[in-house]
Write a structure and sequence with these properties.
Length: about 325
Amino acid sequence: MDRKISIIVPVYNAENTLERCVSALIGQTYQNIEIILVNDGSKDRSLEICQNFAERDSRICVIDKPNGGVSSARNAGLDVASGEFIMFCDSDDWAETDWCEELISHYEENCLVMCGCYVEGEQKFVPHEIHSVNGCTRYKSKEFFELKLSSFNAPWNKIYSTPVLWENHLHFNEMLTNGEDYLFNLQYLTCISGDILYLDKCVFHYEWPREGSLSKLVPDGYLEQCCLLSNRVLELIKELGFDSENGYRQLMTEFYNEFQKITISVLKNDNLSVKEKLGKLKVIMSTAEYQRCAAKAYISTNPIYSYLCQQKNGVGLWLWHQIQK
């Protein structure tokens, strides 16, 4: 199989990791690739590095655009991709030399093929979600979804059919700064009828934690994003038939954790008065999306805390936070 793969790399202020990332792509054993480097308004030397690579390898093209976020950058790459397949790589990650070859060699029409990865951090390699010694494990989509593996969420450990993406007008939601990958993958599943093929081999390196990770930061407008994402995901889950009772409750727990990030950020914000904190908590807890998640989620092993959350008791949560300080 020698069909072209387009590899899309969103780049933003990545001068310290970009060389490693692109060098790994250039060195792929599967050589029928195009590498689309999308400079998303970087303020460092990233664009210069991209252009230098493009001068050295004709398979590399560079898009230079104003900053619009990672989804905007990936979409810009999708719009110009000429390959029959699409793969994604973030500029602070890197791939093993057989990353492309392993994924495309296992590709089947109407299936989603994905691989294992190494999570990089604290100067050690961590094998991530490998299921057997070698080979490729086949799952029905619903069966795989119920495993709740975090590797489903990402786009960089998968190979996508370009015709499937184009025929169904699939792009990343640029209104989201978290969960856009997960949503994209669920949408892709609604467009194919086959299985999920999981390569029991790690051929990708994912850098974690990332600078500015949303595990630490809650951006402006995050409440609206959580509401939008939860509604859209629930629509897709129902369409795919993935809405078993246990699976639904786990999903509600995952979304509740995101709402909880917002409530905690409000409670810990020393720039807000008590009155302002209670007002913001009321807004959060009044949303239908929060209430839906709180009613079903596994919130805490502490029954009092869980009760306060489920009853939308902002005053109680504020007092709880004061006691826990």
